[in-house]
Amino acid sequence: MQTSQAFRENAVRAIADDELRAALDKVRQGFGGARRQAAVDRLPEFEALRDAARDIKNHAIAFLDIYLERFEQRVVESGGVVHWCETPGEARDLVLRLCKEVDARTVTKGKTMIAEEIGLNPFLESHGIAPIETDLGEYIIQLADEPPSHIIAPAIHKTKDQVADLFHEHHQQYGKTQRLDDPGKLVDEARQVLRRKYIEADVGITGANFLVAETGSTVIVTNEGNGDLTQTLPKRHIVLATPEKIVPTLEDATTLLRVLARSATGQEFSVYTTFSTGPRRPDDLDGPEGFHVIILDNGRSRLVGSPFQDMLRCIKCGTCLFHCPVYASIGGHAYGSVYQGPMGAVLTPNLIGLPTTRHLPNASSLCGRCEAVCPVRIPIPRMLRHLREKGLGERLVPLRERWAVAAWAWIAQRPRVYRLWARFLVGVLRTIAGRSGRVRRLPLSRGWTGGRDFPAPQGETFMDLWRRAGRGKT
Amino acid sequence: MSARDAILGRIRGNLGRDGTGESTADERLARHQVGPRPKRTELSHPDQVDLFSTMAEEVDATVARVRNLGEVPEAVVEYLIAHNLPARLVVAPDGRLDDVPWESKPTLEVHRGVADETDAVSVTPAFAGIAETGTVMATSGKGTPTTLNFLPETHVIVLREREVVGTYEDGWRRLREQAAASGRAGTMPRTVNFITGPSRTADIAMTLYLGAHGPRRLHIILVGDDDG
Fold first, then answer.
1. Partner-chain contact A62 B168, CB within 8 Å
2. Residue B180 Cα distances to A332, B94, B186, B187, angstroms
3. Could you tell me if B181 lies within 8 Å of chain A, comparing CB atoms?
4. Is A45 within a domain?
5. Does residue A68 form part of some domain?
6. What's A302-321 look like in SS3?
7. Distance CA B124, CA B157 (A)
8. Which of A264, B21, B92, B165 would be a feasible disulfide site paired with B124, CB 3.0-4.6 Å?
9. What is the pLDDT averaged over residues B58-82?
């Protein structure tokens, strides 16, 4: 499923896809800023909360080893088990073992990006265990056999008609033979189909938005209630998490929750926020008998102390995707990875290496909206630039691009040459453009002129203007 | 070396930890430091109750206010009739609901216990109401199975006005106090649910729809403290 190396081809295909464009236009209208802004405007404390959220995550990472140990200790005290995995392979094998221990045939899943990251569904299927996604968006893309296109809204690229076709095709086996057209009826049908699955499942797998060191609790946030049915009804609850999800206390989790929902969906609070601690207690009437937390590293501990440490603050709200002009044009699949948009362009190369992902940091105009809205103030543009430099330094970039950058660097470091060169270029472009003031075709710049004209410079160079205004010393 | 030791060792090495830091972290854990809290919750208690009610209605919950537990059955019946729902309830087997005189409404069929697929309407108590966002805080326990909050299509919550607090942090403080008072200091129930309105999804074509997997209707009966 990892197709980041084909980012350019993916993006070209995405831009030509009319149904995708229609879906993305709806996203832009719905989430592209207005909803978040409305929620933010209602809370004068929002900017102070962002600072506090950033500080909590920074503190948690600065003491990550200790807080992880405290978390583990508390989980064990409450009757649960913590497992540690270095690689996706280890995590898959472990989940399989935990399922087999209770003779699981079917497994329900709440939305977990870690399961996507480790490719859990195909692996379980190949071992005779049926994984059933319960988040409606994840369920839709499971039926479509596609990866998610947004970290919080996985089926956002699907139109209503596409969903109607999928349900019509896959729900016949449950005696639902009529093709439905109304979104509400489609939701109802999915509710009925999944209801039985919750009750039949032997194991429920969820992710975690936060791990609380103080209490050994795992936290999930949903609007549907699917995560709660998933983790309450089966015999065993497995939580898939990563080390940087740690926060010290319940109060710290609370501060982060205040910025999470507002950033993600523009809600004041998600419908269901659930803190789970250990398995059911002896006098409880329901709940899982087993509680297993898997902490998968998959390269994250390497980011500690690196120039990319700030990325570990990410709470996966997805608002940087909603605000990114590149994401809005190409959607999530073009990124060819589990994590899309600005956060994905930083995280994916760090998790699986730059050689197959080097296009992702370039899929940005560095406009800075992502950083401007990030609830934990991650300097995403800075890290994208850093990754671009790294790609250049590691010679992952084709020779011609490297040569162009080297030539630019040489000129830019020599003010006299730079000014002469700029004056020369301005003259040439104005001559080519003629009276129209626009250049229709430029050598080496087909990427630009293939889609639009290049506006010719209208006057002199900035330095010439500056000097004529009597401000420069030269 | 185990994966655990490798991961923790790498983090420790990259942080340059020299064996110190434990006391800083433990002190931080014990302090329960609170962050910025919305000023809108800094109200008298009656105003907090009003804020709770307003915020809950904003997220599509419905709120009915009664004077005491004695009036709860009447409020439930009215709600069931208004929404054309069956007069059959599964009620949490919790002490806080023991004094509700269900027998005053003989048409109601009440059973107490866990919910199964056939239960359409559940009635549960709450641990707290959070005025900040109209959120109900519910804890699992021997009288409060979690499935009552999620399986039935309609969830009725009986919330005492004295259980309404300003912020989530106030809820945590009460939970810690209660644990300490019952000899379980420092422990958590298996599940703490924060419920803000009925279940919803916008996963099909960005159209918001209530009742995805959890309850389609959330009705909160706010009970006054006039038990005299």
1. no
2. 48, 20, 7, 9
3. no
4. yes
5. yes
6. HHCCCCCHHHHHCCCCCHHH
7. 5
8. B92
9. 97
Kindly state whether residues A291 and A343 are assigned to the same domain. no
Domain boundaries, chain B: 1-31, 41-223
Q: Which neighbouring-strand residues pair with A107? A: A131, A203
CA–CA dist A126, A116 (Å, integer): 16
pLDDT of amino acid B64: 98
- Chain CA centroid to CA B7, Å: 36
Task: Inspect the interface and report whether the beta carbons of B168 and A257 lie closer than 8 Å.
Answer: yes
Q: Which regions in chain A score pLDDT beneath 70?
A: 1, 31-32, 472-474
pLDDT score of A457: 83
CATH classification of the domain holding A145: 3.40.50.10420
Shared domain for A432 and A383, answered yes or no, is no
Q: Select the residue of B14, B172, B202 nearest A250 (Cβ to Cβ).
A: B172
User: Which residue of B lies nearest to A289 if distances are taken between CA atoms?
Assistant: B190
Pick the residue from chain A with its C-alpha nearest to B2.
A84
Residue linked to tokens 């109802």: A188
pLDDT of residue A250: 98
d(CA A43, CA A272): 20
A473–chain B nearest CA distance, Å? 48
The set of residues, in sequence order, having a beta carbon less than 8 Å from that of A186 and lying 6+ positions away, is A160, A163, A164, A167, A180, B204
- Same-domain pairing of A75 and A152: yes
Please, how many CA atoms are within 13 Å of residue A140, restricted to the half-sphere of its CB? Answer: 26
Q: What is the pLDDT of residues B184-201, one digit of tens each?
A: 988 999 999 999 999 999
Q: Looking at the structure, do residues A315 and A418 belong to the same domain, yes or no?
A: no
A220 and A86 share one domain: yes
Domain closes at, from A298, A332, A348:
A298
- All residues of chain B having their beta carbon less than 8 Å from the beta carbon of residue A226 are 212-214
Give the Cβ contact number of residue A432 at 10 Å: 15
How high is the pLDDT of residue A440?
A: 81
- The tally of domains found in chain A comes to 3
Residue of B nearest to A160 (CA): B205
- A104 in helix, strand or coil? coil
Based on the fold, state whether residues A78 and A115 are members of the same structural domain. Answer: yes
A19 belongs to a structural domain: no
* Per-residue b or e along A297-309, where b marks 16 or more CB atoms closer than 10 Å to that residue's CB: bbbbbebbeeebb
Domain boundaries, position A270: 32-298
Tell me the chain A residues in contact with residue B114 when contact means C-beta distances shorter than 8 Å: 285-286
β-bridge mates for residue A222, sequence order: A272
> What does pTM read for this prediction?
0.94
Q: What is the ipTM of this complex?
A: 0.98
- What is the predicted pLDDT for the residue at A31? 66
User: Any chain A CB within 8 A of the CB of B38?
Assistant: yes
Residue A246 and residue A125 share a domain: yes
Torsion of CA A214, A217, A218, A224, to 10 degrees: -130
Check whether residue A169 and residue A294 sit in a common domain: yes
Q: Give the CATH superfamily of B41-223.
A: NagB/RpiA/CoA transferase-like (3.40.50.10420)
Is position A64 within any domain? Answer: yes
